[in-house]
Amino acid sequence: MCEFPNHDLSENEISFLTEIPKCEHHLHIEGTLEPKLLFELAEKNNINLPLNFPATHEELAASYNNFSNLQDFLDVYYIGCNVLINEDDFYQLTLEYLTKVSKQGLKHTEIFFDPQSHTSRNLSIDLVFNGIKKACDEIFVEFGITTKIIMCLLRHCSIDDCSATLDLAEHLIKDGKIHGLGLDSSEKPFPPELFEQVYLKAKQLNPELRLTAHAGEEGDSSYITNALNKLNVERIDHGVRSIEDPKVIERLANEKIMLSVCPLSNVVLRVVQDVSQLPIKKFLDANVPFSINSDDPAYFGGYILDNYLEVQRRFKLTKKDWAFIATNAILGSWCDEDRKTELLLNLENVMNKYHDF
Ligand SMILES: Nc1ncnc2[nH]cnc12
Ligand SMILES: [Zn+2]
Question: Residue 1: its pLDDT value, please?
C-alpha cells in the first residue's frame, strides 16, 4: 500500500489547473537547461565536460534521481552553466522555457539568473541579460506572457565578489531592466545577515529595486527572520521551514509576505520525502500567502503545471483553496497594477467556468 496519499485527478481538475492563470516567482533560468540542450551546447561551444560526467543526455537525466541534498544538485547545476557561452545560448534557453510554459497557463513569470556563474567565466553581464530579454520580448508579443528579470547573488561567493557583481550590473539596475535582487546557492552555512551591506548597496543604486532571498529551504526559520529583518526582502524563496516557528507563520500572514514554494524541488533535494509532507494545508489554514513554482524544472522532473498537479494529487484541495493560491500569486507578483487587474479578471472567469471538485 502507498505510504502517502496520491489521488487520481479528474478531467475537471486537470483542465481547471491547466487553465487557471499562473504566475511563477521562483525559476532559475539556468535550471531550465534540459540534458539534451546541455549536450548540444557543449558540443557546439567545444566545452569539455568532466571525465566522470554521464556520457549521454539519457544517463544524465537518470542521474538526477540521486541528489541527496541541495549541494549535490548545485555541483551538477554549475557544470551545466558552463556550456552557456553566447547570447544566443541564453536566448534559446529562455525561449524553450517560455514556449513550454505558454501551454501550461503561465501568464507572468519572474526569472532568476546568476550573473556570477557567467561573469566568472569572462562572459559579460550584458550578453547574458540581452539573450534572456530578447526571448522574453518575443514571447510577450507571441503569447502575452509578461516577465520580470531578477539577478541572484551566489551566497557561497565572497561579499567582495557579490559587491563587484552589483557594480557590473549597475547600469541594468539603475534603469530598472533588472527588476529585483535575490540570493541563492548553498544556503548553509551562509545566512542572510552576511549580505546586509550588499543588499543596502543594491537598494541605493535604485530604491525601486525589489528584494527577495532564498531562505528556509535547508536553513531553519531564523534564516527567514534574518532575511526579513536584515535584508528587508519583500518575499521569501522556499520558506517551507517557516512552519517550525508559529511566530514566523503569524508574521508571514499578518504582513502578507509571500513564500515562493517549489514542491517537486523539495522532494528531489530531500527537504521532504514527499509533496504530501509539505505544509500546504497549514499555510492555507494560517492565511500565509504562497505561490507554487518549479525552481529548476529541467532537474526536478516538472515545470509549473506539473507542480500544480502534484500538489492536487497529494492534497485534494478545493476550488476555493486554488482561488486563494492563484489570487496571492497574482497579488504577490512584481508586475504593474493593470496587469494584476487583468489576471484577477482572468482568474474569476476560470473560477466561474469550472464546477467544484
Ligand atoms: N533550489 C535552489 N536553492 C538555492 N540555490 C539555487 N540555485 C538554483 N536552484 C537553487
Ligand atoms: Zn531556487
Answer: 54
| Structural domain boundaries enclosing 206 | 11-347
pLDDT for residue 129:
99
CA distance linking residue 244 with residue 314, whole number of Å = 21
Q: What is the CA radius of gyration of the chain?
A: 19
- Report if residue 78 sits inside a domain: yes
Taking the centre of ligand 1 as the mean of its atom positions, its distance from the CA of residue 71, in whole angstroms, is 9
Protein residue closest via CA to atom 1 of ligand 1: 295
Contact (CB, 8 A) for 322 and 350: no
Q: What tens digit of pLDDT does each residue of 201-232 get?
A: 999 999 999 999 999 999 999 999 999 999 99
**Has the ipTM of the complex gone over 0.85?**
yes
30 to 37, 247, 273, 324: CA distances (angstroms): 12, 35, 25, 30
- The 10s digit of each residue's pLDDT in 91-149 is 999 999 999 999 999 999 999 999 999 999 999 999 999 999 999 999 999 999 999 99
CATH code, domain with 290: 3.20.20.140
> How many domains, the chain?
1
Q: Structure pTM?
A: 0.98
Per the DSSP assignment, residues forming a β-bridge with 106 are 22
Is 4 among the domain residues?
no
Best of 33, 217, 240 for a ligand 1 pocket test (most atoms within 8 Å of beta carbon): 217
| Residue 6 included in any domain | no
Ligand 1 pocket by Cβ (under 6 Å): 28, 31, 70, 77, 184-185, 214, 217, 265, 295-296
CA atoms within 13 A on the CB side of 138: 14
Cell of 269: 533535494
The answer to whether position 69 is within a domain reads yes
